[in-house]
Amino acid sequence: MKNFAFTLAEVLITLAIIGVVAAMTIPSLIQANKAHRLRSQFLKSYSTLQQAFRQMIDDEVSIDPKTYNNNTFYKTLKNYFKIAIDCGNYQSNSEIKNRKGCYNKKNDNKKYRTLNNKTDAYTEDLDDGQFVLMDGTSLLLENASTSLIMVSVDLNGFNNPPNRWGYDLFSFQLLDGEIKAMGEPKTRYTSLETYCNLKSTNIRNGIACASLAKNNSDYFKWVVKNAK
User: Fold this and answer.
1) What separation in angstroms does the CA of 92 have from each of 20, 88, 98, 177, 183?
2) pLDDT per residue over 104-138, tens digit each?
3) What residue segments make up the domains of the chain, in order of their start?
4) Are 143 and 68 in contact (CB under 8 A)?
């Protein structure tokens, strides 16, 4: 009876083929998994925001921006979330720099960046109240006047990269009694060429990407692949 076995050369050739296939497929699988995770986090955060505003309406709490003077909306909104860290706001809380997990716009070593990672994001849109949820998501508010209330969501918290508008930071605007993804009609920033474009040098580049993330199921595949 003859025994059949692979030669060393055959084994090495097989391993080489497996290695080549793995090198070709694993990066794509990693990208796909990352895109799926980001999309799931985005949809969850958007749903959580919607639920909070619906609850405010049920409680007969105003969601009209004209109701709130500078920095006052943050104190109302935080009552509708389970908060792990209350970061306060920059105008009233000088201790924010000592709170782990909170974004400190005065920290020159760690900033939010624009979509293409070429410049620091416009921090004045993120400084009117901030808190971190139990799942690590961060909410950063803009309420500098009664004409605009904006909620930006850092899907994985400030301690986790890439901290870029349109990648893991997305902005929503309270408008006409509902929370809308920035970039949608009638929101403050609708030009995708300026505000969601890898070639744009605008300091708010990425702020309008929330509309694409909400309405385009392939958006996160695109951003993970192209926003290096």
Assistant:
1) 57, 7, 14, 28, 30
2) 887 777 899 999 999 999 988 998 999 999 999 99
3) 30-102+110-226
4) yes
